[in-house]
Write a structure and sequence with these properties.
The structure holds 2 protein chains of 2 kinds.
Chain A (H helix, E strand, L loop, with lengths): L5 H8 L1 E4 L4 E5 L2 E4 L4 H10 L9 E3 L18 H17 L2 E2 L10 H7 L8 E4 L13 E4 L2 H10 L1 E5 L2 E8 L8 H12 L7 E6 L1 H4 L3 H9 L8 E3 L4 H7 L8 H12 L11 E6 L6 E3 L7 E3 L13 H14 L14 E4 L7 H11 L8 E3 L4 H9 L2 H7 L3 E2 L21 E4 L14 E4 L2 H10 L5 H5 L1
Chain B lengths: L5 E4 L1 E4 L6 H4 L2 H6 L11 H4 L22 E4 L11 H9 L3 E4 L4 H8 L4 E4 L2 H13 L6 E4 L4 E3 L5 E3 L4 H9 L3 H6 L2 H14 L1 H4 L1
Parallel strand pairs in B: 2-3, 3-4, 4-5
Antiparallel strand pairs in B: 1-6, 6-7, 7-8
Classes of the chains: A alpha/beta, B alpha/beta.
Amino acid sequence: MNARTLFEKIWQRHIVVDRDDGYTLLYIDRHLMHDGSAAGFSRMRERGIKLRRPNRGFATPDHYLLSDSGNVADIPDPHHRRLVEAITTNTAESGVTLFPVGDERQGIAHVVGPEQGVTQPGLTLVCGDSHTSTHGALGALAFGIGSSEVAHVMATQCLWQRKPKAMRVNVDGTLGNGVTAKDVILAIIAKISAAGAVGHVIEYTGSAIRDLSIEGRLTICNMSIEAGGKAGMVAPDDTTLAYLDGRPFAPKGAEWDKAVKFWRSLPTDEGATFDHDVSLDAAAITPMVTWGTSPEDALPITASIPEPSTAPDTSKKDSMQRALEYMGLVPGTPLEQVAVDRVFIGSCTNSRIEDLRAAAKVAQGRKAVIPTWVVAGSGLVKRQAEAEGLDKIFRDAGFEWREQPGCSMCVGMNGDTGKPGQRIASTSNRNFVGRQGLGVRTHLVSPAMAAAAAVSGRFTDVRRLLS
Amino acid sequence: METFTVLTGVAAPLARENVDTDLIIPIPRLVTLANVDLGRWAFEALRYHKDGSENLDFVLNQPRYRGASILIAGRNFGCGSSREGAVVAIRRMGIRCVIASSFGDIFFNNCFQNSVLPIALPQEEVDRLMEEARTCTSGAAFAVDLEDREIRTPGQRTVAFEVDPNRRQGLLKGLDPIATTSLRESEIASFQDRDRKARPWIYS
């Protein structure tokens, strides 16, 4: 048989119909839902049809929950409150599994899926959220869809898809101290651009990726969408199996053995080819900071704000000028001299236990000089962090340990936004204009770099604080 | 769904790369308004000043492009989130066709669910169309012909474009995707039967 990629193997396994116009009806194994998925349920009701396979659905509220209260009645906006309440009634009526507010298993959908073992190698998994690419870290084919396609999956358990191309991003070598998965993915996006992987599924390979924990791989795959990728994936290996073993929704006993045998067959065959190949040297990656309004505007912390005059063309020059104006930055200023007003540690990119440990390591014995929030990705992450004493480290350092897991300031749908003109060091995934509030200036960084900014009041090379 | 056959209208040049979905429709509008009201807030940050007055520098506010139904945009249009409200917002604003060299993948898919036609063309062609949209007589119409898969410009140029045959049919006839897929019921059922034997742990 021809040598095949991980992506190719999963794709072929899920073909229901191959149409001669190049479209495939692809079977969908798992459908994650959140409080923004209410539109899908409404469409089903309007049509008077039931979910085809409700036991493939897993739901948890995340976007609209307040970060300082687990009480839904406290949500001031009645529309938001209704959306959070709707997930309870919608799942109860349809038979979809719910991890509700107040249940430790509740959290950000892209944290909960892997944590519960809902996400597994070889699956197709969708969710009405662009950061669904996260789940590829366990060797699944996972991608975000719009609300019409959410309804389509609810009704048919399938999606029409044109087969994407395959891209391999290889990162070999060893990451330096203080350099994390977040820095790797920002370096990748800076290299290939925010449109670099449009129409492609990315497989991340190489020793630096292999050496990452599942948490690190989740961070990398999460931001595949910021490179324009349809999905991001890492082949399942011993790290993946060790992570999944014993999780509530992972297979058990004889089924586990059978699944493992299948999972072991998934990694890309030797000699398989990709439509595009990109490689990075792990040792050359430094802690990164974005300076503009696209995730591709990322630079090493040692760099300075770029000069638009150095842009390769006028279109790029214009976009740099616009970005610098919005961000209130002067070309030539060293990044380490840029003062920060506020820090957010959280989001589906960086709110897992490893992220919180990395931030706590920097916070320990230091004091925040600017408001700093930490929002755990799930109730289970929060409990573990508290068991390890991380909450105490954060509190002693003047960081705010927020009460309720959820998306919080990453997207600000719950009202957690900054003030116009504020500069925020954020561990989230998007630095778009207005993303964290009207006129707010977002800089994407790793949890360790966010903590370094919190205790310094400006962007700071975290490697100095760790030595 | 509304059909899309031949669209005739003014084309507006939005020479900006990476126009993301937050820029197309900001979250506060998205979560508080019904779909029907989103049009007014499409491109809010570009379209209005902080005091709520219109920013006349923004292309869609300029008299000659007001009411444009075709948008010619920079690379990677619609990147970012999966919010279908981004397509709904531009549609409600009156835009039925977006032309760019590349699109955010989810946005691109969402267009077809909402009777909006996204057309991907090589950058040089997008640049030429943008230039013509800037320099043509004010009010001159472009035609986007989905039947014949071509764009006809005021300068009498014809630019062919490609679109997936089934998606084209879906737009031309205003087909309902769920109803269309439901015709495949027996194939979906037999897939599940086969798959259940091969991967029982998925079904337990």
